[in-house]
Request: fold
Amino acid sequence: MSAAEPVFGRPTAETPLFWQRLRRNRAAMASAVILIVVASLAMLAPAFESLLGVEATRVNLFNQYATPGSTHWLGTDEAGRDVFVRLLYGGRISLLVGLVAALGAAVIGTSIGLFAGYHGGRLDTLLMRTTDGVIALPLLPLLIVLAAIDLTKLGIPDGIANSEMTSLYRIVFIIAIVGWTTVARLVRAATLSIRTREFVRAAEAMGAGSTTIMLRHILPNVVSPIIVATTLSIGAVILLESVLSFLGLGIQPPIPSWGNMLTNAQELATRAPALAVWPGAVIFVTVMAFNFLGDGLQDALDPRSVRR
Reply:
């Protein structure tokens, strides 16, 4: 095998095999369809807003708790706002937080795993002990503490610290800096196996630098665990964002998210239970879909996976 030949660049027959395995997994395919539908509806939120003649943020106290109809498909909330359109806009925020935070965590974890696995020695020990330390921390209490920090006391101007989008950026950052550990350990394990392969040794003999070897020869061969871990983590991130928003420490109104929609509905559970049912249902369905899709990708990408 030549130094520049990655495992994923081999035979064209391997790609169809991946799709064959994935298609045979009905739960994964159904989950992919559900996620495409949810994402598409979220992206079309402005179109539905225009079609129905409503506004997600328009308050109309004379139209509180309206029943579902031709204008308000899922009724209205305690402020007279359309629930369906707010669900779509909330999906935009929750999915954005899930995707960006999971990708950020994957980048951090991949970098740490590559350096630890390739260089080994004291650097490996230091990075893995750091990873173990982060894993040992109680996740939810840590996130609550980090989310409750007053940014103005850190020297950030009041206008920026209290802006609507700052809560979004902060949640993404907080989840990304604590959610990289799984990817780091998976990438390290794969790197330890691949760094002894002939094509890596050949690249070293040809004088390639460590950064070039990690990026061009090792990284393409550890993509499978990264994809699987990232897909699985998106659902977990959406759930964490929903929990933090439910506790009032996540995405702040008037920006809607599925979590803060649940927060607004908790005091109205007896009067208007549907206000809690709809965001809770979409959170449940979306998180389960990401989990099933991640399991399906893991089976499809695993060369040792044999289905009857």
